[in-house]
């Protein structure tokens, strides 16, 4: 009983939906009544109302009211363009359909720009759909633009001023908190007893988890293509890596050398300065330079072979500790650079190394071009979604034009709102929508029959019903939303033309046509959504990573090769693109149902996809660090051992890759359990310098990532 009550009554959800409903209803009703009854301009009234509904109700722009208002204000010129283009192309069905194909794909593909662009796209689609239907009346373009501008302007004011929500913690604040936690951990490791206690490790884990995209409000996720968003994402990833590396340092280490404690103290200072920078404080130049100097001293001290002539004579365990501390320093340096770049952009004071921060000096349009080009392919879920919705809307426009479907606009609206990324989701939405529309049509028919042509009744009922529909519909789901919206559009059109009960019949027919078209394209165009693509892109990521593991291990073993002048080693761009595609597929995968139809090949159960993504990042970062000059030449025993363990780790990556995405003649198999205790990891060749232990430490961390992949998700 409690479960039923909870599903029907969720105060927090209704409160959030109610605030949005108040703003949208107030704006839509004000614009409609002023133009319809005050100025007797029904065309402007229609566009004012639907502009508010499109961008306030259909769009789901994340963020606070002021953030949404800023997005809407920037989108206003695009709204004008869409209304003008839709009006001009409505002269012929074929021109309107071609325009729908181009506009539909462009707006849907704009989701690569981040959550705000993705949330605005459905409303902008509607602003093209509305004028693309007959009558072809260029003379009314002025009224259309006036109505659209009024609706958007009123919505901007309402979002900024009415029922404002408290802003959530910004991503910068989350990253600053993680940096401060890292600073505390580094200070504890630099002083007796040189270890973290349970509370420290728990705090480090909590701070790292707070930066995961799953735990960050959508509006605060740094997912855009710009320099600031990329740098913020880089800051968060570096902070998570730093916390993980600090937590992994050995417990109870007895008396580390002064070079190690100097590095850890410098890490603490840089982490604290980075937190201040993220909170609009000074640039962390001095702490950055101090850590660079401390890192160089430790690297120089441990660079020679163990026990060799002129070497410091450190024991292998000490060299392993040095390698781990140098990894900590590398993560802290990356965090400091990324944070300064995120806050100050081109005016960053911290030196920006090439390669890893390739976007630092890149022009903003080029960054957009990089993002668009990276997703311009059938393996991108953004590309797939754009193709699916563009083809569905184009088909709906052709059917509505060729068959002269009455109010064909409603059919396209149904296609737009009911087409989902997976076949099961689409069919489920269609069933609920048709049921809700049928119920709404019955209510509409009864209302129109009883009220007749008394527009005063409809004028009084419209704002009340609008408030109810926009409050209940988003919470109760697509069936309720379609049913309530069916009555709402009837109340609107009853004030624009003499109404009859046939309006409900037309609405039902239009939703049926739009639903069928959406369902057809949901079946034909990538019906499994992100499930297939996540499996494929994760497997491709591991294959690319395996190539880099082999090349990096061989380079470290034989002292051959180094990062080129560009700072980007061969193969890194391909792996970076694979990581981007896998991340976008993973983000969509989290929003899709776990069960779906049309299984051509079973997805391996119990896969920790987040570990796969982290394996890609760790491969990129570690490889680039290990290829930095100078590269001491290893002795024959150490070189052979290092090359062997690199090949074994790469082989494990290929095994996991084959399990995630088996080929045509490859037998399907579960993801293999990975042994994290290779004998080679514990080997201590007599001629091994610190580079050997640094590379082994990197390979060991990659093996731990592989083990997590097969262990299954921990919280997803």
Low-confidence spans: 1-5, 305-312, 595-604
Could you state the order of secondary-structure elements as H and E?
Answer: HHHHHHHHHHHHHHHHHHHHHHHHHH
* Overall mean confidence score, pLDDT: 82
Label the structural class.
mainly alpha
**Helix content, binned percent:** 55-70%
Global geometry: elongated
Q: Tell me the distance between the termini.
A: 28 Å
Number of strands: 0
Main beta sheet: strand number and arrangement?
none
Q: Please report the number of helical segments.
A: 26
Rg, Cα atoms, Å: 30 Å
**Strand share of the residues?**
under 5%
Q: What is this entry, summarized?
A:
This protein is mainly α. The protein has helices at residues 2-8, 11-38, 42-58, 65-89, 93-109, 115-129, 141-161, 171-189, 198-209, 227-248, 258-278, 285-301, 316-344, 364-375, 381-402, 408-418, 423-451, 455-476, 478-493, 502-524, 530-558, 572-589, 609-626, 636-660, 679-682, 690-711.
């Amino acid at each position: 009983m409690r479960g039923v009550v909870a599903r029907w009554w969720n105060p927090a959800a209704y409160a959030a939906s109610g605030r949005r409903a108040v703003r949208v209803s107030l704006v839509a009703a004000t614009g409609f009544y002023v133009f319809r009854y005050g100025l007797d301009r029904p065309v402007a009234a229609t566009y004012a109302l639907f502009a508010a509904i499109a961008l306030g109700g259909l769009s789901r722009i994340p963020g606070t009211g002021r953030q949404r208002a800023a997005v809407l204000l920037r989108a206003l010129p695009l709204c004008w363009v869409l209304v003008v283009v839709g009006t001009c192309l409505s002269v012929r069905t074929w021109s309107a359909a071609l325009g729908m194909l181009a506009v539909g794909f462009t707006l849907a593909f704009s989701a690569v720009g981040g959550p705000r662009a993705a949330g605005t796209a459905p409303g902008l689609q509607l602003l093209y759909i509305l004028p693309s239907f007959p009558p072809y009346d260029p003379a009314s373009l002025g009224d259309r633009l006036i109505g659209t501008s009024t609706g958007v302007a009123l919505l901007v004011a309402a979002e900024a001023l009415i029922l404002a929500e408290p802003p959530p913690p910004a991503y910068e604040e989350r990253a600053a908190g993680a940096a401060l936690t890292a600073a505390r951990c580094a200070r504890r490791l630099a002083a007796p007893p040189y270890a973290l206690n349970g509370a420290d490790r728990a705090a480090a884990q909590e701070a790292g988890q707070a930066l995961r995209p799953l735990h960050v409000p959508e509006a605060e996720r740094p997912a855009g293509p710009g320099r600031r968003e990329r740098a913020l994402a880089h800051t968060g990833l570096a902070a998570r890596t730093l916390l993980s590396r600090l937590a992994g340092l050995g417990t109870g280490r007895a008396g580390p050398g002064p070079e190690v404690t100097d590095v850890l103290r410098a890490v603490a200072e840089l982490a604290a300065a980075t937190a201040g920078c993220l909170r609009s404080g000074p640039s962390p130049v001095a702490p950055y330079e101090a850590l660079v100097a401390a890192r160089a001293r430790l690297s120089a001290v441990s660079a020679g072979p163990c026990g060799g002539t002129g070497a410091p004579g450190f024991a292998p365990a000490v060299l392993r500790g040095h390698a781990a501390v140098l990894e900590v320093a590398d993560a802290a340096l990356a965090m400091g650079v990324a944070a300064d770049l995120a806050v100050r952009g081109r005016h960053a004071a911290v030196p920006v190394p090439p390669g890893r921060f390739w976007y630092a000096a890149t022009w903003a349009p080029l960054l957009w071009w990089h993002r668009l080009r990276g997703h311009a392919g059938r393996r991108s879920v953004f590309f797939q979604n754009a193709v699916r919705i563009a083809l569905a809307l184009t088909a709906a426009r052709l059917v509505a034009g060729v068959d002269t479907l009455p109010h064909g606009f409603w059919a396209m609206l149904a296609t737009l709102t009911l087409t989902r990324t997976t076949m099961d989701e689409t069919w489920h939405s269609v069933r609920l929508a048709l049921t809700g529309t049928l119920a709404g049509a019955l209510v509409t028919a009864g209302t129109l029959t009883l009220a007749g042509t008394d527009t005063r009744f409809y004028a009084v009922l419209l704002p009340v019903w609008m408030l109810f529909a926009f409050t209940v519909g988003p919470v109760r789901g697509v069936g309720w939303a379609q049913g309530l919206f069916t009555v709402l559009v009837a109340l609107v059109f009853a004030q624009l033309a003499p109404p009859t009960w046939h309006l409900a019949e037309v609405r039902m027919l239009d939703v049926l046509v739009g639903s069928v078209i959406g369902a057809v394209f949901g079946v034909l165009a990538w019906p499994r959504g992100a499930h297939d693509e996540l499996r494929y892109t994760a497997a491709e990521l591991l294959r690319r990573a395996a190539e880099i593991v082999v090349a990096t291990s061989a380079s470290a073993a034989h002292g051959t090769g180094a990062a080129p002048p560009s700072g980007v080693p061969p193969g890194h761009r391909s792996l970076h693109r694979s990581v981007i595609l896998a991340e976008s597929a993973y983000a969509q995968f989290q929003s899709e149902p776990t069960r779906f139809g049309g299984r051509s090949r079973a997805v391996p159960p119990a896969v920790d996809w987040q570990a796969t993504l982290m394996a890609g990042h760790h491969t990129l970062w570690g490889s680039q660090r290990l290829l930095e000059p100078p590269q001491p030449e290893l002795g024959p025993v150490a070189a052979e051992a290092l090359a062997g363990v690199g090949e074994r780790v790469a082989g494990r990556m290929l095994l996991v890759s084959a399990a995630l995405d088996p080929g045509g003649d490859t037998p399907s198999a579960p993801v293999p359990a990975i042994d994290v205790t290779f004998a080679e990891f514990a080997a201590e060749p007599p001629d091994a310098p610190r580079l050997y232990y640094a590379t082994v430490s990197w390979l060991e961390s990659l093996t731990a990532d592989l083990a997590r992949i097969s262990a299954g998700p921990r919280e997803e």
